[in-house]
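re: ur msg from earlier - yeah i can do the inosinic acid complex, just paste it... oh wait u already did. ok heres what im feeding in:
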Amino acid sequence: MTNKNLVVIGTHWGDEGKGKIVDLLTESVTAVVRFQGGHNAGHTLVVEGKKTVLHLIPSGILHPNVRCFIGNGVVLSIPDLLKEIQELENAGVAVRDRMMISLDCPIIMPYHVALDQSVEQRRGNQKIGTTGRGIGPAYEDKVGRRGIRLRDLLDKEQLVFKLEELLHHHNFMLEQYYGAPPVTLQACLAASYDFLAELTPMMGDVLSALAGFRKTGASVLFEGAQGALLDIDHGTYPFVTSSNTTAGAISSGCGVGPRYLDYILGITKAYTTRVGEGPFPTELKDDVGRRLAEKGHEFGATTGRPRRCGWLDVHALQRVVEMNSLTGLCITKLDVLDGLKEIALCTDYEVDAAGDTTPVYEMMPGWETPTESVKSFSELPENARAYLARIEALCGIPIDIISTGPDRSETIIKRTLI
Ligand code: IMP
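and the outut:
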């Protein structure tokens, strides 16, 4: 039996347009899996003109027969998960009977949110620019081996015992160090235990379920959140998220071993953006940057913050190809570059004695003919094709998909992946 497992990874700092591509590829798979991150992610899908923003639920959910999994590598905000389910149900999308959430998911508690916000405030102009959703502190508790996991809700007495310990610890920090109000046990139970009955039917052993798919030859899609340069180990530390966002996280984040991944797709925006603080060598603070932001509607799907915009950083992309063993690329938002006279590709960095980075650019001619909504490669303007060919040559892997607009239909598929 042949099955093909696909991975979708963002290649820069997130917001590459993964949601649309996952949604598109979901047509050919049995299940979609989230394996890291939390509701800091924001995946925007547009189907037949209707927009849906997902944060925690895998982007495959809009396909009625697909199963969706949240692996143990995801930190879970239970109220946010249930709110998202409710919103989908209100829109007529059935969720509960095809969702499984790992019993080993760490739970984001109210003290994690309070800590995230207090830590950021104290950092002042050194702040990371987090989404303020408690992601970092929840991963800290996990690694500190004191976190509350979904399975802990099954034993209330033990849960209360553990929570009381944690509250001593975190409230001490909140009150004594950050001067913030303490969090109550009641607030923690209200954000977790109180939803047990609603959650129980969705709780399960994700590793076994995914092993079952493999044995029957069913294809699975692994949906990365954020982007490779936000990876806690390989990203622009400390301006990163708290999880591994690269393909290697699949094994630890949902229990599927590395030999079972067949195709790893990197989603790359035709230019580069970043939300939050941190280095961004190709950032454009001029009219071109503002034009990219406006035309590309570059505002965060989770926080609404404006995204910083710049030229495509191929130098960083080359490292990302390597660290993820990318098979191919999907270029999104090509149409946002329409009408520019010249387009720059960053192929190297020059670092001076003080450690300041200056990008080295290769200039390419732009194109006048719009690429918006173009559905076949041969219809793209010659200069757009040359731009794509140069990216392929510099990265050493093919561009298999090109996205020319937000809708499912506005896509050029050069190679069928599955
Ligand atoms: P955190 O993940 O909330 O701790 O935020 C850490 C950094 O990751 C900040 O710069 C956030 O803006 C960024 N970040 C987290 N999730 C996303 C995402 O889905 N897209 C883009 N940036 C993100």
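cool cool. Residues 236 and 279 are 7 Å apart (CA to CA). ping me if u need the other ligands too
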